[in-house]
Amino acid sequence: MQGASARQQQPAPGRKPVPRGASRMVAKEPLSARMPKPSFGFLKGLFWPVMLVALGFGAYEAAQRLLPYADRPITKINVQGDLSYISQQAVQQRIAPYVAASFFTIDLTSMRTELETMPWIAHAEVRRVWPDQVVIRLEEQLPVARWGDGALLNNQGQAFAPRELANYEHLPQLFGPQRAQQQVMQQYQVLSQMLRPLGFSIARLELRERGSWFLTTGAGSSGPGIELLLGRDHLVEKMRRFIAIYEKTLKEQITNIARIDLRYSNGLAVGWREQAAATTDKPAVAKN
User: So what's the pLDDT on residue 37?
Assistant: First the structure.
């Protein structure tokens, strides 16, 4: 051999020599290590819903068993509110069909609806009070004016029709289309406040189909009632004009005036009563 001699590599002490051309043996893993580990995430996510369903079912069963002991018959009806136009006896008679129910089964919504169908009740509030009581709080209608010949108007401009209207003839009488109840009431309140400092009250206010307004004052300290023709629009401006001219020239003659036409752009026309018309050739026209 040239240049060098071949040396064989000696195996390490204590280690078995590996034959040339053979593969190394690898130790096999145990079966438990090769099997996929089970995942409990799904069961954890399912635990709380199942628990809540179980608790709900248990509470339902407990309520069903305890309900016969807690659901007592209604033994007391407490009616509250300042009642001037209806009696507690009338209220008790109206709700009698509902009182036969028990504490939990009584239909409070239907009872409230039934009470609010009574003409003089504007609002009803009904609630339970443990263990066997129902409290009813009533708010009566506040009649402000008559609406036509068969109904009254409350302060919100809502019509209601009690059986007896003879006791309310002292209230002002308002007329107009059914759709205009609130509009007529609002106009009445505005004009009434403007006329009150002069000593006038409104006995009649009418809104006709074509939109014209007619007002009649009540008899009082300022004299007999007079009719004011207000026209279609600008009622507040026309009333201010009337007040200004009244204070200047009409106040001393108000007892002789039957009507005042305010449908002019810058003045008014006066219609005299019969005794004054005998000495007057034509109606006076005043300008502001």
Answer: 60
